[in-house]
Design a protein that fits this description.
This protein has about 240 residues and is α+β, with helices and mostly antiparallel strands. The protein has one domain. The protein is built from ten helices and four strands. Helix 3 packs across helix 6.
Length: about 240
């Protein structure tokens, strides 16, 4: 598993790293993204950043997912008790918020866990919300993501090839989640997560962690996807 994890990190280095600020128009419509975190290094004597999250999206929604994670549409901060907070639409943001609140032993974690995209929760639990507090947390999440995270992407056109238990995403997650080289640093924020899967795996993820690793067919697919992605990037410059 460690060899596969090392191989994956190495082949992805053929692709550029995207850091904030960036233009969302320069991103593809479909693909798989790989997030890195500045303080997280691969291996005890490593010289490369380790992957801390792998994700994808429904058909045509790559750009919107990245926009939600980085909160590129800052009008989304104008929420109130009847409107979901940005982290209710990005599980990545929600997990970072969980870790921040748990680190600070803040009881507001119980409210943070509520999904206010659900109408029944807005109707019956809106009174539990502290909007000013939520906005402070959301601003901190945005700062952390923009200052400490970066990502690479590979273009994968069809949803079936990307998503679900049979899609490439699950095998990629299984590869990095079970890698012996893949250990979080002592100061990694994810160690404060109330989610045991995040603390144990070193990934900002809870799904597909026990999935099997990529196979030879997957490796060939990844190499072809990287080649196509490089060509796509070159043609847009």
């Amino acid at each position: 598993m460690s060899d596969l994890c090392k191989w994956l990190h190495e082949v992805l280095e053929q692709l550029p790293v995207i850091r904030f600020p960036f233009k969302v128009e320069q991103l593809p419509e479909n693909g798989i993204y790989f997030f890195y975190e500045n303080s997280e290094i691969l291996g005890p004597n490593g010289d490369r950043l380790r992957i801390v999250r792998i994700g994808t999206h429904k058909q045509g929604n790559f750009r919107s997912r990245i926009k939600e994670h980085y909160l590129l549409d800052e009008s989304k901060m104008d929420f109130n008790k009847d409107v979901p907070k940005p982290s209710d639409r990005s599980i990545f943001r929600k997990n970072i918020g969980r870790a921040l609140l748990n680190r600070d032993e803040d009881d507001y974690l119980q409210v943070w866990e509520i999904d206010f995209t659900e109408r029944k929760n807005r109707e019956f639990l809106a009174h539990t919300r502290d909007i000013d507090k939520e906005k402070r947390i959301e601003l901190e999440i945005t700062r952390i993501l923009r200052e400490h995270f970066s990502f690479r992407f590979v273009i994968v056109d069809t949803q079936e090839e990307r998503m679900g238990s049979k899609g490439l995403e699950s095998s990629l997650i299984g590869t990095v989640a079970n890698c012996e080289l893949f250990k979080p640093s002592d100061n990694w924020l994810g160690k404060y997560s109330p989610k045991g899967q995040i603390r144990k795996s070193g990934l900002w993820l809870v799904q597909h962690l026990k999935n099997g690793p990529i196979n030879e067919n997957d490796r060939e697919f990844i190499l072809n996807a990287i080649k196509r992605t490089k060509e796509w990037i070159t043609n847009r410059v």
